[in-house]
């Protein structure tokens, strides 16, 4: 029986975020987490398994690499210890806009002279 504590789930979420920061949008040199594409990470315990649900969006509904990005998100989420299954929910509401980019992401873009 796995009843995860709040602290355990927070630790797992931090590890998922770390992994998500290794996934990049091919058109913008910022990882998908700092780009603001990941809206939330939730957990569902289905004894004895832990499912992670990542809700995210894309910079455009017509993104040509959408399928690849979603597969990468699932892969890096499953790579975290104790995550037995990963689901990626793609949403377009609210739509992504450049105001969703984190401070770290903005700094990186400015440092590299990239304008959005």
From TrEMBL:
<dbReference type="InterPro" id="IPR052339">
    <property type="entry name" value="Fe-S_Maturation_MIP18"/>
</dbReference>
<protein>
    <submittedName>
        <fullName>FeS assembly SUF system protein</fullName>
    </submittedName>
</protein>
<dbReference type="InterPro" id="IPR034904">
    <property type="entry name" value="FSCA_dom_sf"/>
</dbReference>
<dbReference type="Pfam" id="PF01883">
    <property type="entry name" value="FeS_assembly_P"/>
</dbReference>
<feature type="domain" description="MIP18 family-like">
    <location>
        <begin position="16"/>
        <end position="82"/>
    </location>
</feature>
<dbReference type="InterPro" id="IPR002744">
    <property type="entry name" value="MIP18-like"/>
</dbReference>
